Amino acid sequence: MEGLTDPEARVRTRYVDLAVNAESRDLLTARSTVLRSVRETLFAKGFIEVETPILQQVHGGAAARPFVTHINSYSMDLFLRIAPELYLKRLCVGGVERVFELGRAFRNEGVDFSHNPEFTLLEAYQAHADYLVWLDSCRELIQNAAQAANGAPIAMRPTSDGLQPVDISGVWPVKTVYDAVSEALGEHIHVDTNLATLRRLSDAAHIPYRAQWDAGAVVLELYEHLVESRTERPTFYIDFPTSVSPLTRPHRSKLGVAERWDLVAWGIELGTAYSELTDPVEQRRRLHEQSLLAPVEIPRRCSSMRTFCRPWSMRCRPPGASAWASTGWSC
């Protein structure tokens, strides 16, 4: 037997796929090796691993639609977690200075080649750190995992001719969001570029935007269409507009941008990190502004806002945070 080649049959009968395709078995082994390597790298840095609730009364930690379920014993609706963030931050407040969770997250949204409703998520928090610390830590996590799975710091890139090795060794490029968008547009923009100019540039590039968006939201849309989707090799894009980074500390020396980066490769976001905003007053203000953008979800968002801001009202060590989603796979 040459193997199961029909893509739909491979997904629907995964056990048959594993039985007849050595490549699928190798992928399963490689995934296990990657997860083990991620844990070992974090353990070596002094992190501890925890498990936080998957069934939650309040959904938070990301702007995503949750799956809703019901617990009969309490006659109460619960949500499958969209991220473990709120619980991990409580651990930070409690004095756990290096903590991570590697587990499943669930988002009831669209499905495409880069988005699955159920996926594995790594989220880690480190006190006395910032987003620049995580530039090196994230790269080390991925390169170590590639070394463990492939015997070298290479990633296996699917192509029409099969898997092709891509060298991911060394230091990866770092670009600011505004510089990257300027390069893609062929016209310089910066944090003070007015909304009318950004709309004109979006129209010229045939990129749609909404009337209620501010300048930061338009810049983010330009970035996603002109930069993120066209990036092949691993690249860190740093310093996003503050208005689209509500959980992030403002940049220490640049007005209008936040200390946040996204890691992008092969047209998709692989990870994100930021210096945490730990000022509860400013955090509450930003989350309230966000809640006004989605009137239908205001009650739930306000509940999440109270749950999120209360721990920060205590004395808290300033953490740097990183969330990295790995490829989801299930039998």
UniProtKB/TrEMBL annotation:
A biological process (GO) annotation for this entry? lysyl-tRNA aminoacylation
Show the GO MF annotations: ATP binding; lysine-tRNA ligase activity; tRNA binding
Query: Coiled coil located at which positions?
Result: none
Q: What cellular component GO annotations does this protein have?
A: cytosol
All residue ranges annotated as the Aminoacyl-transfer RNA synthetases class-II family profile domain in the record: 31-273
What lineage is this protein's organism placed in?
A: Bacteria, Bacillati, Actinomycetota, Actinomycetes, Mycobacteriales
Which domain of life does this protein belong to?
Bacteria
Which PROSITE patterns did the record assign?
Answer: AA_TRNA_LIGASE_II (PS50862)
- InterPro entries in alphabetical order: Aa-tRNA-synt_II, aa-tRNA-synth_II, aa-tRNA-synth_II/BPL/LPL, Lys-tRNA-synth_II_C
User: What is the protein's name according to its record?
Assistant: tRNA synthetases class II family protein
In the UniProt record, does the keyword Aminoacyl-tRNA synthetase occur? yes
Q: Which Pfam families match?
A: tRNA-synt_2 (PF00152)
Listed A to Z, the keywords are: Aminoacyl-tRNA synthetase, ATP-binding, Ligase, Magnesium, Nucleotide-binding
